Amino acid sequence: MAKYIIKRLVMLIPVILGVSIMVFIVMHVLASDPTSIILGQHATTEQVERLRAELGLNQPLYIQYFDFLKGILNGELGNSLISKTSVTSEIASRFPATLELALVSIILASIFGILIGVISAVKQNTIIDYVGTVVSLLGVSMPIFWLGLMLIILFSVNLGWLPVAGRIQIGIEPEHITGLYILDSLISGNMEAFKSSLSHIILPSVALASYSTAIIARMTRSTMLEVIRQDYVRTARAKGIFERVVILSHALRNALIPIVTVIGLQLGSLLGGAVLTETVFSWPGVGSYTIDAILKSDYPVVQGAVMMLAVIFVLVNLIVDLLYAQLDPRIKYS
User: Fold this and answer.
1) What is the CATH number of the domain that holds 263?
2) How far apart are CA 238 and CA 58, in angstroms?
3) What's the pLDDT score for residue 108?
4) pTM, rounded to two decimals
5) CB within 8 A of 276, min separation 6: which ones?
6) 317 and 11 in contact (C-beta within 8 Å)?
7) Which of 4, 108, 157, 238 could be bridged to 209 by S-S, CB 3.0 to 4.6 A?
8) Which of 5-9, 27-31, 101-105, 190-194 tops mean pLDDT?
């Protein structure tokens, strides 16, 4: 397994190179000149050229790319063209918010997705199965930003049950702070902070989890339908084992490998695809930070955020692959 892990980590190198080239070309060829945003519309040509020289934007693209690549190898993603702050530190400070939102969303998606999928498979071709199918289709079809706005209108504006947006932390001692506010409040025993953190994350996590729930439910249903027709499931039933035990211990356990694969892919997508959700709910994560940088043509920020999310996606896939051996001991790594 150690050789397999090393092999997969080495494969990160071409992935990083490919992603870095793509995002660099897109930002420098298609995006607008950031100097016009920084200086404004009335800046003179001399001022623009002076600022481009200060930012290194007057150098040939290949030199700018190699400087960017050198920074990645040194663990530095450069400084923001707008705020002049370190991109690495900014992303590090915002990543816990994105991670917290993605983890809560994937937990919700996994629980409800597997539940809907299992029930639909067991109750195939019944009204319950049809309802589950319709719910899955709605989850796949509804745009997340539209669902987010509808949730805000219903539960925040009309009913006033939940806050509209944001992410706050109340009365937690600095030594307990990890950046994951829900976990922080539990560690510190601050129930007021826990309730506040929970209330702020409900709407964005539900909106973000909708698509993943539908995907997981559809995969669970199709996989379960294949498994429950296998001979060993019939044998378990013939032995008089309770149906609940047959479904959970025999069928679901053997159907978990493709389900875990989908969950892992969805987690990677949530970490990198929470851009619209964070924007709608003013969630201070990497996604909203990246959107703001795109609008301002802040090259280093966009490049750094995309690179970080690409590496995370590959690492999540590696973890999922390693989980296969725990689910099925017959799987060997080479």
Assistant:
1) 1.10.3720.10
2) 76
3) 92
4) 0.80
5) 144, 145, 148, 287
6) no
7) 108
8) 101-105
Rounded distance, CA 323 to CA 251, Å?
18
Residue 46 inside a domain? The answer is: no
Q: What is the 3-state secondary structure (H, E, C) of the chain?
A: CHHHHHHHHHCHHHHHHHHHHHHHHHHHHCCCCHHHHHHCCCCCHHHHHHHHHHHCCCCCHHHHHHHHHHHHHCCCCCECCCCCCEHHHHHHHHHHHHHHHHHHHHHHHHHHHHHHHHHHHHCCCCHHHHHHHHHHHHHHHCCHHHHHHHHHHHHHHHCCCCCCCCCCCCCCCHHHCCCCHHHHHHHHCCHHHHHHHHHHHHHHHHHHHHHHHHHHHHHHHHHHHHHCCCHHHHHHHHCCCCHHHHHHHHHHHHCHHHHHHHHHHHHHHHHHHCHHHHHHCCCCCHHHHHHHHHHCCCHHHHHHHHHHHHHHHHHHHHHHHHHHHHHCCCCCCC
The answer to whether 185 and 193 are in contact (CB under 8 A) is: yes
Average pLDDT for residues 54-79, to the nearest whole number? 77
169-182 pLDDT, tens digit each? 555 444 444 567 77
Q: 212 in a domain, yes or no?
A: yes
User: What is the extent of the structural domain holding 320?
Assistant: 98-163+205-327
Q: What's the chain's average pLDDT?
A: 79
Q: Alpha-carbon Rg of the chain, whole angstroms?
A: 24
- Tally of structural domains, the chain: 1
| Inside any domain, residue 105 | yes
- What is the structure's pLDDT at 175? 47
